[in-house]
Design a protein that fits this description.
single chain, alpha/beta, eight-stranded mixed sheet, 12 strands
Length: about 400
C-alpha cells in the first residue's frame, strides 16, 4: 500500500528523550547502571498507589453498574465538582459562567483546544523553549508555530505583543516551573499577558501540570485568576500528583467554549474511564489531597537541592543551569557552538546517562540550541549525586576543561 500521509505526519519525529533512553539501554553492559535524566516521568516513590488500589477496588465492588457504561463526554459530574473545589482551595475561582471538563490527561486538553481553534496555516505562539508535545500538537494540526523569547521572570512581553499584533489563534504558556526551562512567570507578567490577550483577541492556553509542586518562594496567581472575559483556558493533570497511568486531566474555560469542545471529545476519546473517575472522586472526597501533595514536595525538594548542589560543584564554570522554584526539570546550557545532540548521544552511549537535548523544545533556530533538560525527581538521591558527577567529568573532557 502506498500510504498518502499528510505533510505534517510525514515530518513528525519521535521524542528525543525516548531515543536517548534507548541508546543508553542498548549500550548497557552486564555490570553497568542506567541513570535516566532524560525522562519526563515522576518518581515511582511518590505514586498514590495505595489510594488507587483502595478506591479502584471500591469502584469495582461497590460502584453502580453504570460505571461500566460509556460516561458523559464532559466527565463524571461528582469528580468535576471535586476538581472545582480542589483548584479553588488555592485561590482560583471557577465561576458560574466558567465550566470544567475531564480530559484524558493534559495532552488531550491541548489537542482538544488545538482542534477547536487552529486550522492549517494559523499561527500559534509558544515560549522558547516550550513543551515539546504541545509544539507537536500544534504542528500536526498544520499551525505555523511562532516562538517568543524567555527571560528570568517569564516570557518577553515585548516580543509577545509583536507576535500577537501580527495575529494568532492561541498563546500557549507553562507559567509555573516551565517544561523544560524551569522558569516561573512573575505576577506582573501574568497580568500583562492577560491584558495583551484581551487587546489582540488571542486566547491564552495556560498549562499548569506542575503548579502544586512548589518547593520555595510564594505561590503566584494563575493567569486564569485575572480572567473576567473568558480569555484564558486553564488545563492541568493528575499525572504528576497521583500517577501518570490514571490519565486524568481537566480543562477550565468559559462554558461556551466547553460546549464547543465536547463534540470534539465525543469523536476523539469519547470519555475517560468512569471507573477511574469514580475512584479519583472518592479519593478527593475522603482525603486532604494537598496534604498528600506536600509529601511529594518534601521528597522532590531534597532532590532539587541535591542536583543543584552537585551541578555547582561538578559542572565547568562555562555551563549554566536554571534554579527552578518547583516542578521536575533543570535546564542546563552549554557554551555557544556546542553540538548538544552529539553531547547527549555520547552521554547516553558512553555513560549510560540519557539526557534530553533541548533542540526539540525550541521552535526558533533549534539548530543553535546548546541546552538540555535534566529530570531531577525520577532517580534516587544516590543516583542523582553519582550521575551528575559523571556528567560533570564528561563535560570537562568534552569542553577541554572549561
Amino acid at each position: 500500500m502506498n500510504y498518502q500521509f499528510r505533510k505534517e505526519v510525514q515530518v513528525a519525529q519521535k521524542a528525543a528523550m525516548g531515543e536517548m533512553y534507548n541508546l543508553a539501554k542498548e549500550s548497557l553492559g552486564v555490570n553497568d547502571k542506567l541513570i535516566n535524566f532524560a525522562s519526563g516521568h515522576p518518581s515511582t516513590d511518590v505514586f498514590q498507589d495505595k489510594f488507587l488500589k483502595k478506591y479502584m477496588n471500591f469502584a469495582l465492588e461497590d460502584g453502580a453498574k453504570e460505571l461500566l457504561q460509556y460516561g458523559a463526554h464532559a466527565g463524571y459530574m461528582p469528580l468535576r465538582h471535586s476538581f472545582r473545589r480542589f483548584v479553588n482551595e488555592k485561590g482560583m475561582t471557577v465561576k458560574e459562567d466558567d465550566d470544567l471538563m475531564i480530559t484524558y490527561g493534559s495532552v488531550e486538553a491541548i489537542f482538544l483546544v488545538t482542534a477547536a481553534f487552529v486550522s492549517r496555516g494559523d499561527k500559534v505562539i509558544v515560549e522558547v523553549p516550550s513543551y515539546v508535545n504541545a509544539i507537536k500538537s500544534f504542528q500536526l494540526q498544520g499551525a505555523e508555530v511562532v516562538g517568543v523569547g524567555m527571560e528570568e521572570d517569564g516570557v518577553n512581553i515585548e516580543e509577545l505583543e509583536r507576535a500577537m499584533k501580527e495575529g494568532a489563534k492561541l498563546f500557549y504558556t507553562v507559567p509555573n516551573f516551565g517544561n523544560p526551562s524551569g522558569i516561573t512567570m512573575s505576577a506582573e507578567k501574568r497580568r500583562a499577558v492577560y491584558e495583551l490577550a484581551l487587546k489582540y483577541n488571542v486566547p491564552v492556553l495556560e498549562d499548569n501540570p506542575y503548579g502544586d509542586l512548589r518547593y520555595r518562594n510564594d505561590r503566584i496567581p494563575h493567569i486564569k485568576e485575572f480572567d473576567e472575559e473568558g480569555a484564558v483556558i486553564y488545563i492541568s493533570s493528575m499525572s504528576k500528583l497521583i500517577a501518570p497511568a490514571v490519565r486524568v486531566g481537566f480543562l477550565v474555560a468559559d462554558k461556551e467554549l466547553i460546549d464547543r469542545i465536547i463534540p470534539i471529545k465525543a469523536v476523539s476519546t469519547n470519555g475517560v474511564s468512569s471507573i477511574i473517575q469514580y475512584a479519583l472522586w472518592k479519593m478527593f472526597e475522603e482525603n486532604d489531597m494537598y496534604e498528600q501533595i506536600q509529601k511529594i514536595c518534601d521528597v522532590y525538594e531534597k532532590k532539587l537541592y541535591l542536583m543543584e548542589e552537585k551541578m555547582d560543584e561538578c559542572f565547568p564554570a562555562s555551563v549554566a543551569h536554571s534554579t527552578p522554584d518547583g516542578g521536575m526539570y533543570i535546564w542546563v546550557t552549554m557554551p555557544d557552538g556546542t553540538d548538544i545532540q552529539k553531547f547527549c548521544r555520547e552521554s547516553a552511549i558512553r555513560l549510560h546517562i540519557p539526557i534530553t537535548p533541548g533542540n526539540g523544545f525550541c521552535v526558533t533556530e533549534p539548530e543553535k540550541c546548546t541546552s538540555m533538560r535534566f529530570n531531577f525527581v525520577k532517580e534516587s538521591m544516590e543516583d542523582i549525586a553519582y550521575g551528575i558527577e559523571k556528567v560533570g567529568e564528561f563535560m570537562r573532557d568534552y569542553l577541554g576543561g572549561y
